[in-house]
Amino acid sequence: EASDPKEDGTTVCVQQGVPWLQDCVLSLSPCSDLLVIAREHKAAFLSAKWQTDDSGREEMTLAVSWSGTLSSEEGSSTGRPDWTCIVVGFSSGYVRFYTENGVLLLAQLLNEDPVLRLKCRTYEIPRHPGVTEQHEELSILYPTALVTIDGFSLFQSLRACRNQVARAAAAGSDVVQPPPLAYKKWGLQDMDIIVDHSSVGIMTLNVFDQMKNASILGGFHASVKGSPPAMSQYMTVGGGPFTGFYYAVEGSSQPLLSHVALAVASKLTSALFSAASGWLGWKNKNEEEPGQKQKPKVEPATPLPVRFGLPDSRRHGESICLSPCNTMAGVTDDFGRVTLLDVARGIAIRMWKGYRDAQLGWVQVSEARGEREIATSPSMPRRHAQFLVIYAPRRGILEVWGTQHGPRVGAFTVGKHCRLLYPGYRLMGVNSVTSQGWHLHTQQVCLFDPTTGVLRSITIPFHLALSDKKSERAKDMHLLKRLTLLMTRNSALKHLGFFRQALESMLTSKNAPVACMTNVTRALLASLKEQDPEAVDESLLQLCSSQLRLLQLYTDVQLLHTPDSSPTETESLSVAGIEEDLARVGPILQRYAELNSRPSVSFAQDPGGPLPVRAFLSQLVFEGGELRVVRGPDTDWTHLGSFLFWGCLSGQSPLERVCETLQQSGISPQQLLSLLLTVWLNREKEILKRADAIRNLHTLLNTLSSMKGALDESWDVQCISPWWQQVRNACVQSESAGAALLAGLVAHRAAKSSITSLAESKLSQVRMGHFQADWEFVSLELEQWVVCVRQLEDVLALQTLLSLPPPQGSPGGAVPRCSVKSLLESGRGGVADSVAKLIFRQDAAPEMLQDIVQRRVAEQNSEEPVEELLQLAEAEKDGIQRLEGNYGRFPHSLAPDVLWAHCCWEYVVQWNKDPEASTPTKPHITKNVGKAPKDRLCRRDVGMGDAAMTSFLGSCVQLLQTLMEADSGVEEVSVPELCMEEVWGSAEGLASIAELALQQKAVHYPLVQHHCLLASLLHAAMSFSLRLKPLSLFDSKGKNAFFRDLTSIQLLPSGDVDPNLVAIRQEVRLISHSLLFKNKQDSGSAKTGGQVDWLAVCMELASLLQVSADILRRHLVWELYNQGLDLRAEEVMLEVEDKDVLGSQLLVLTGQRLAFSLLHSQTQTKATMELLARLPPTLCTWLKAMDPSELQCPSVSLQQSSRLVCRVIEMLPENHAQYSIALHLLEAVDSLQEHK
């Protein structure tokens, strides 16, 4: 058994999601009765045991028989193993042999390198007379050496060791140390890396090949021996070359063992072992010499050069698997290829690609023994077929291929973490003499799934190798031979216990016809009745009788559903009262059918077509003499219901005869009703296309209701009927809104008719003299139906709205489904929540939604009919306006405030699915950066881009302002009252968003205002890319109050002016500067940044930051003049209080304009130079000191500059120090205008 646990205790990390067994070494015995699992220096042995599961079925289970720390097969005369020996190779080079109980039998150090692979070759009966007989052998691969141990000597030694251990355990004495084993050690040369090997066995070349090899190796003068020598062939895989072929001539290397131990290994028997143990050197532990405790000597290897190989410098082999007949081998490599090699010729004959990390195994199938007996030539030997099994873990598929050039005969989808277990050998201890009459156990290929613990064996029929996979002739001929052989033998079941198994196997067969099942069951029943009653198993007799009745029922129903061309009686197409109901719900039902008629995906595995007889028999059982339907999966239940009732619903089968047959079968009416409703509700698309389905359903309901046991005879009309309650439960739980409503309408009419007839029969028993007037019957049952039908109509209207297709370009998805039960369990906000999700999917504009709400509010007193659900149905893009019709059905659930609340919450939920962002993160970014962060920084720290950040901050400002407005007006508005529609008053579940909102505490207005100030600053900084540190504008109290619960009371900044007021003013001036620049780009508009009135925002921020509004206005006037917007500046100038300071500021700006015209203009004229020379020296010096580069718009008209100088003179008092300069400026501007 190939195992490789590590002695050094190396820990192997297991990848997440991969079963831990992937890191273990697994090995399975050829008889599949022992599984070894090893990892590091731990091992567990699992033995096969029979056990009975919960259903009473016996199955084989591998249970742990031994496990612990680690300090081949042998046969008996029956062909089964007497005991199993486990061979374990260690990383230290040791090879140890254990029993099934973990007892160490033998240990020997063969090489000082880690053991790579352990492989065993057992005896094979020669298939042809000329085939060389192969002997048993154990081969051990090291990185640079190959050790082989003769199987016969190993078999004798292990048996002797086991007997000695057993006697020592019985006598309580110590176990003596056995002598070493005889082995051959080859030093494999001329290969860079060797990872796996196969020992092909002894081969003899023919004369031609012998002469060819001699001439190639020895040249022209090479000598050739008379007889070809026998050679042992070894194949290796690895790298440099990819595959190597080694040939060791027999007799070139002697076994490495002393003459005494060699005699022991070859001639020792159990009796001699006991008598001569001391003479052989197997001393007790107490008698061991000190030198024996030293590390044993490792014998050198005999060099063995590679004869030839398959060179491929880039390809590295990973494993090799030899076929059972030693003629072919499969090799896997790191390129994901599987190569099939011809062992004798040493060439590649086939290659598969796309099998990375593949695992290989071989299955050899023999032709059945009986087939040769009836063949034309009885002396022809049995034929054998070989199949290559490939497991691709990357793809999770197991494939079976015919060799050498056969097709793929099978493919199975399995897990991606399975292990393919292929021992590659049989029982050990067999030779040509002892194998006579043995039935050698076939080599099995098993697939082990570590996730489920299931071990599956692979069985392949022989006929798959006879011809191409698409040829059915070979398969039919093979099956015909087997059938002929079976019929020629006089074989019959004798034991009654096997009759049941045979009958159950036939009844569960997938391909057996129902007529064949009926005839066989009837014949078996007749045979049992003819036997002695005391000798017949009563349970088998009942099984035959019950199964025969079920088969007859299946046949009768199948015949009734067969299309019949005979004329049938025409029935009335109308159902009393149903026309009015259909006229009421007809338009919405038609629109619902159109929206749900789109094609859907179906799979070949989906149940379709007629119900197989085995599925019918598996769902019906007889218990206590009564026939009962076993409720299985929904698909099976629907399939059974379709088999029984679909022909009736579609009008293809006679309703009365079908119901009569089902009534005679003994199935309870309740189960028949459940099957009928299941097929009606699950085949909604087909139901809505058939006009006569409603009439057929009404007939079936009336027929089932009239069956015995359906309606209780003692039922009071003033009580709820369990029969009709079953119908209501099915309708309210179904998500097929259209079919559920139709079933509810039909059942309502059927129940009303039944209740009316029952009440009239009871009334007729009373004296007619006491009742002269007409009476209208009122019952609790009918009231339940009225509520149920109204609920079903509401659900249909809502489901039609939810079925609207999404807009073009939006991601698709499954249509949300709703039912009466789901709406009742979703609480008071279920309807609004569903509509809010629809509004988000439809990407509806808030303006359109507001228009619908306003129209509904204006028509509160009008009751809209159901037909208004179809408004604008022809325009698919305006399908969201269908919401207007739902207000008539859900006036309270879709109230404007409730709908707005759920829509807002849905948008928040959808926004939250993106990378999360929060308001507290933004100030910390700007605090560290000192300016509006770039897109990369926003995405790294917040999870959204700078554009999304700006929009988000604007929304935060609006939300905080809304909270302040709501808090300021809370005393003026009464608390809204949340109501529900009468039919939905029993809704239970989570509280709606509106209810949760009303339960919230009131916010603390100053704290909300404090946060709104911060949000406004952040919004302005992001909108205009300001260099702003928002938290620096607040003192320690203000900073500590941020990001607290808005309902809490925090310590906020007082009204005292902070010393940092100068810095705050500077920041506000920066805001104004950017604002004016933005206004200039907006071509005269006072609102920028998404319709935000930033002028009003700046004034409000100045008030909150305790900045003088007059300072802000003066700075704003200066900025407007600086941008050349003189008219707008004059408007703001009227609100400025300190005119003197403003005049001084504007005087400098006027000087900059005049200096640009006189000194820095590119078009200076002679008149301009003369004017400059005539100016007073004081003014000329003052103008030269001006810097026009600070002007954002220096090129303004002289009329604007003259008007500005006049304004400055008006604002400056006559005693002002710069009043004279202003007068000189006015003269200069006027003179310049004259020269222009």
Automatic annotation (TrEMBL):
<dbReference type="InterPro" id="IPR032839">
    <property type="entry name" value="RAB3GAP_N"/>
</dbReference>
<dbReference type="GO" id="GO:0005737">
    <property type="term" value="C:cytoplasm"/>
</dbReference>
<feature type="region of interest" description="Disordered">
    <location>
        <begin position="284"/>
        <end position="305"/>
    </location>
</feature>
<keyword id="KW-0343">GTPase activation</keyword>
<feature type="domain" description="Rab3GAP regulatory subunit C-terminal">
    <location>
        <begin position="928"/>
        <end position="1213"/>
    </location>
</feature>
<dbReference type="InterPro" id="IPR026059">
    <property type="entry name" value="Rab3GAP2"/>
</dbReference>
<dbReference type="Pfam" id="PF14656">
    <property type="entry name" value="RAB3GAP2_C"/>
</dbReference>
<dbReference type="Pfam" id="PF14655">
    <property type="entry name" value="RAB3GAP2_N"/>
</dbReference>
<feature type="domain" description="Rab3-GAP regulatory subunit N-terminal">
    <location>
        <begin position="20"/>
        <end position="421"/>
    </location>
</feature>
<dbReference type="GO" id="GO:0005096">
    <property type="term" value="F:GTPase activator activity"/>
</dbReference>
<protein>
    <recommendedName>
        <fullName>RAB3 GTPase activating protein subunit 2 (non-catalytic)</fullName>
    </recommendedName>
</protein>
<feature type="domain" description="Rab3GAP regulatory subunit C-terminal">
    <location>
        <begin position="671"/>
        <end position="919"/>
    </location>
</feature>
<keyword id="KW-0963">Cytoplasm</keyword>
<feature type="compositionally biased region" description="Basic and acidic residues">
    <location>
        <begin position="284"/>
        <end position="298"/>
    </location>
</feature>
<dbReference type="InterPro" id="IPR029257">
    <property type="entry name" value="RAB3GAP2_C"/>
</dbReference>
<comment type="similarity">
    <text>Belongs to the Rab3-GAP regulatory subunit family.</text>
</comment>
